[in-house]
């Protein structure tokens, strides 16, 4: 069987107007059904920063009150959302609907790079099926478009980058890799947790013996946007802050409240007036350092309890256990939604066994290393969504290959 298609896979591509149109329709219906009314100050920290930008106060105030410059969240989505706020008003219902509509379109567009990624990683036949399945995936009861956050844009950008890397031309054009590097830099400032995937991809390219000059070109292009944002942080805080400042808060939130036990993260400043006042009076960096220090002290004193939490978060990340809330299939049908969430996780680790060995190294590295930061801090439903396209592709490919081998054995026995 020919696993990886050549240029001819473009001729076999599905009708993108139909695929993307169907994807928009299913997501729009699902989001409309699932999303609650927009309450005051909806959306969390990114919309709060977007409101500050829209008011002309700059990248600041992640908790809706004036607290000065922030590096709690990455910059791309708040600036994008601030445009919507300027046009339709900050934190209005219309702005919320427009933001969700944008997410719906971005999520549906994932089908296009997902097709090319799957065609290069698996097979053209699998790629066609995956594109259509991605279009109707919200029927499973969950979608990345639900959150007024960077999730849908992040999923689209990450899938596009992986498709570009896996499908890179054999001549290693420096222009191609400069574009890949620029896209990588955009991905990093969009969501810094992607550095895990970027690191795995870089090591994989070294392993493939990509020319050094080509790699340096890509790295230089990739470093530009993160360097600019880091320089902004240094200017605002007068000390080094690389991309984001909130690791201490993320770690502390998972220590002071255990989300998989049903504890609400009431220690977060946007839910706790006492913590908000500490954040305001101490300043962002000192407050986050104090939260990190107290979290590390708790971990030192309770290593066994923390280890159990890490294991449970790992299970929750992949299975949705105590993370996934049933929306479309409540009550007795909730198990359907949970099963549909688990299948791509299990199927991906089966499907990766059939991937070409060289590319299998890249995929396994992403599957193993990407979620680690969430295991040690806290797990939310939206955190797995960016790699769901990859999981879906591997699952369908694994099913296809198992069926072919079963059919072959059956024909031999006959």
Task: Describe the structure concisely for a colleague.
This protein has 414 residues and is mainly α. The chain has helices spanning 16-34, 45-55, 76-88, 93-109, 111-121, 124-136, 151-166, 174-190, 195-207, 212-237, 247-256, 273-282, 284-301, 303-319, 334-351, 357-369, 372-376, 388-413.
Description of the structure:
The structure is a single chain. The protein is mostly helical and 414 residues long. The chain has 18 helices and no strands. The mean pLDDT is 90.
Please give a handful of descriptors for the protein shown.
single chain; 414 residues; mainly alpha; 66% helix; globular
Percent helix: 55-70%
Q: Kindly, what is the distance between the CA atoms of the first and last residues, rounded to a whole number of angstroms?
A: 22 Å
H/I helix tally: 18
Apparent shape: globular
How many β strands by DSSP?
A: 0
The radius of gyration over CA amounts to: 22 Å
Based on secondary structure, the structural category is: mainly alpha
């Amino acid at each position: 069987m020919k696993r990886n298609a050549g240029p001819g896979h473009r001729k076999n591509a599905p009708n993108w107007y139909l695929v993307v149109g169907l994807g928009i329709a299913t997501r729009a219906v699902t989001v409309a059904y699932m999303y609650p009314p927009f309450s005051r100050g909806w959306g969390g920290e990114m919309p709060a920063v977007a409101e500050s930008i829209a008011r002309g106060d700059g990248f600041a105030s992640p908790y809706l009150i004036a607290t000065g410059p922030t590096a709690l969240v990455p910059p791309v989505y708040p600036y994008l959302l601030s445009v919507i706020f300027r046009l339709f008003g900050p934190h209005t219902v219309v702005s919320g609907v427009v933001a969700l509509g944008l997410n719906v379109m971005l999520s549906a567009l994932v089908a296009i790079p997902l097709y090319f990624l799957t065609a290069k990683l698996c097979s053209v036949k699998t790629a066609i099926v995956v594109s259509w399945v991605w279009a109707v995936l919200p029927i499973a009861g969950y979608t990345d478009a639900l959150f007024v956050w960077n999730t849908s844009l992040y999923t689209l950008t990450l899938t596009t980058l992986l498709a570009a890397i896996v499908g890179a031309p054999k001549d290693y054009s420096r222009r191609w890799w400069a574009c890949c590097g620029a896209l990588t830099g955009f991905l990093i400032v969009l969501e810094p947790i992607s550095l895990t995937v970027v690191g795995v991809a870089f090591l994989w390219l070294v392993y493939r013996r990509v020319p050094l000059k080509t790699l340096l070109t890509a790295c230089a292009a990739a470093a530009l946007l993160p360097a600019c944002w880091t320089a902004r942080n240094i200017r605002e805080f007068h000390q080094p802050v690389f991309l984001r400042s909130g690791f201490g808060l993320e770690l502390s939130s998972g220590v002071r409240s255990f989300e998989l036990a049903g504890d609400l993260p009431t220690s977060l400043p946007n839910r706790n007036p006492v913590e908000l006042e500490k954040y305001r009076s101490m300043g962002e960096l000192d407050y986050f350092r104090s939260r990190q220090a107290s979290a590390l002290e708790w971990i030192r004193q309770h290593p066994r309890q923390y280890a159990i939490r890490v294991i449970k978060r790992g299970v929750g990340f992949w299975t949705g256990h105590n993370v996934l809330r049933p929306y479309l299939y409540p009550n007795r049908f909730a198990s359907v939604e949970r099963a549909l969430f688990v299948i791509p996780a299990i199927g991906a680790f089966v499907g990766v066994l059939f991937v070409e060995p060289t590319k299998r190294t890249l995929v396994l590295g992403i599957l193993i290393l990407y979620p680690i930061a969430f295991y040690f801090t806290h797990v939310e439903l939206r955190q797995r969504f960016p790699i769901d396209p990859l999981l879906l592709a591997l699952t369908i490919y694994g099913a296809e290959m198992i069926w072919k081998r079963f059919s072959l054995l059956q024909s031999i026995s006959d």
